[in-house]
Structures are given as C-alpha cells and as structure tokens.
Inverse folding.
C-alpha cells in the first residue's frame, strides 16, 4: 500500500485514548494481557482476535442501547443528512436531507434507474435499523440483506420491514462485515452507509465488500475519514490524534483512515472506476441539528433514560463539529466497481 497506509491500519493502541474512564479502559478489563499491551502472542492471532472481539462487543452494546432513542428523535436513517452548503436548514429539513444523502450517493455512483440495469440484489453492510435497506428495496424493487452487530437493531429492522409490507424483500441478521455470511459474487449493489468508520481492518472490510460483489457490481462506501495527509507527513499531528481519540472512545471507533487510503485499498484490489468526493461541507448543518435535538426537553429526558454509553456519545457531539471545523474530519464517499 501507499505511504499513507500506516495511518490506516495501525494497531488499535496507536489511537488509544489517554483518558482514564474510557471504553478502552473498560475494554482492557475484558481483554487478555497480551492484547492489551499490543504484545504479540506466539502466533499474533490470539491477541488480534481478542481486541477485535472487544470492539465488536462495544459496538453492539452501543447500538443496542442508543438506537431506540435515535429512532424516536431522528427516524430510521442513522446517518448524516446532505444539505446545500451554507443554506439554512430547519428541523423539518433533516429527514429529507437524510433521504437526499442516499440519493446523492446513488447518483454519485451513477447507478442506473433503467429497469434492465438497476440493482436486483443489494447488501447493506452495517445496516442500523434498515433505513437504507428498505429505501433501496422499494426504490429498485430489489432484494436486500442487511447486517449489523446489534441484535436490537436487527430485530427492529425486521419489525419495520414487516410493518411496511417488505418482509419478502428485505431481511436482517447479526453478522460481522469483516466475515460476511454470504458466498462470493452475490450482490449487484454493495452499500455501506456510515459503518466503515467502525471497521478495525479497512483492507479486510473493503476486501469483503469486493468479495460479495457480483462481477460488474457497484460498491458504495460513505464514511467518516480523517483528512488526507500531506506528502511531507507520515501521520496526523498529536493534537489531531488526541481529538480523534476522544471521539473513538465515545463511538467505539478504531483508528481512522483517509479517503486516499480507501482509494489505495480499492486500487490494490483491482476495483475499477474508483471515485471519491469530500462532502464535509454538505453535512455541516447535521451535528448542530443533532445537538439542538438533544437539548429539547424530549431529547434530553430520553437521553437521560437511555444509558451511559448514549449519554457519553451525546457529550462528544461538539467534538465532531470541532473536527469538521478544523478540517480534520472529512465526510467522504468512495465508489467503485468490481470488474466484469
Ligand atoms: N447504515 C445505517 C447505520 C449506520 S450506524 C444507517 O445509515 O442508518 C453504524 C452501523 O454499523 C451499526 O448498525 C453497526 O452495528 C454497524 N457495524 C459496525 N461495525 C460493524 C461490523 N463489524 N459488522 C457489521 N456491522 C457493523
């Protein structure tokens, strides 16, 4: 991989939060000593899998706990909205902005509405409660399978599908994006909306997306990245790493990577038509809106009832804004195609 990769695939301890009561600390309690220290077991395998298991568990618990609140306040799409830069947005616009995000991603990837070419089999990797899955299944009349680490999300996604009369079109299961429970070459649209940031091994993540893609399939990744490094840099600055560490702690994220890193990975997998864009300006109104919604009486009381992981997530929201304002955090789309 290119010179940027060390920031993309560092061992998790590189971004280890320094705070005392972090999820890292909680996680360490449940992880065997060699993994905690980042030391290698004789094979190196046991420690890596123990770390990955701790992260998976944290992600599952975080979404088990917080998804109900998110749905009550924001609806079934658990991702940023897409806005016209610098245009004012009212609260009523946000749901439309989330749908627009899906549509913008499809059109960036130049997906065809032509009945002959439109996707028929879709996988939604990191599906939340299935907002994208149901939308895409309806839009294209396609079959869609969603995977999430959170059992609560999978159940809720199934219930919503039944309620919307889509039970024969969409299905959901608890499964790891890094070991997808699907044979090779199954799907003609591979969709990952804001789940890539949770993946501890970006190369394996993209590799799995490519594996389950059918020849000619489109792969769409919309994800949080850090800024691209300058040619003179080999890593982010310490203050930048520190800020990201705090966000990682609250949102159960491993090390971040840049959009350029994703492009390099896609190239190394011989994927074609690789395109990327920085949509940070288009998502700028989102976090201020989420913070405003948390500060309403309903939002605030629901938050207090939801649990510590959700509250900690809410407390970190201003840091997301700080990251965007400092041009450290980038909201990126990366699309590509599996060769025919
Ligand atoms: N794409 C959804 C949800 C985004 S929230 C939406 O836009 O509404 C992030 C999602 O990624 C959660 O559902 C979480 O369970 C999932 N996720 C994170 N890591 C994962 C992994 N390793 N395997 C499968 N899903 C994962």
């Amino acid at each position: 991989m290119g010179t940027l990769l060390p920031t993309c695939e560092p061992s998790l301890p590189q971004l280890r939060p320094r705070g005392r009561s972090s999820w890292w600390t909680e996680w360490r309690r449940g992880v065997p000593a060699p993994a905690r220290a980042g030391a290698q077991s004789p094979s190196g395998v046991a420690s890596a899998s123990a770390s990955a298991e701790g992260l998976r568990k944290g992600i599952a618990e975080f979404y088990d706990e917080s998804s109900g609140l998110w749905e009550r306040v924001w609806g079934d799409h658990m991702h940023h909205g897409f806005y016209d830069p610098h245009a004012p947005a009212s609260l009523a616009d946000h749901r439309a902005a989330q749908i627009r995000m899906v549509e913008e991603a499809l059109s960036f990837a130049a997906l065809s509405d032509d009945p002959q070419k439109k996707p028929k089999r879709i996988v939604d990797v990191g599906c939340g409660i299935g907002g994208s899955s149901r939308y895409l299944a309806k839009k294209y009349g396609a079959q869609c399978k969603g995977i999430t680490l959170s059992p609560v999300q999978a159940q809720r996604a199934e219930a919503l599908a039944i309620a919307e009369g889509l039970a024969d079109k969409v299905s959901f299961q608890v499964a790891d994006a890094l070991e997808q429970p699907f044979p090779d070459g199954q799907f003609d649209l591979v969709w990952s909306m804001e789940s890539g940031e949770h993946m501890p091994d970006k190369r394996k993540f993209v590799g799995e997306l490519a594996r389950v893609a059918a020849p000619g399939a489109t792969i769409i990744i919309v994800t949080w990245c850090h800024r691209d490094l300058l040619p003179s840099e080999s890593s982010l600055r310490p203050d930048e790493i520190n800020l990201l560490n705090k966000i990682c702690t609250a949102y159960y994220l491993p090390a971040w990577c840049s959009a350029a890193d994703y492009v390099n990975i896609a190239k190394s997998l011989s994927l074609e038509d690789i395109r990327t864009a920085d949509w940070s300006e288009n998502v700028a109104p989102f976090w201020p809106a989420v913070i405003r919604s948390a500060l309403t009486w309903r939002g605030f009381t629901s938050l207090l009832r939801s649990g510590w992981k959700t509250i900690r997530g809410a407390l970190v929201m201003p840091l997301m804004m700080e990251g965007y304002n400092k041009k450290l955090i980038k909201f990126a789309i990366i699309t590509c195609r599996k060769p025919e």
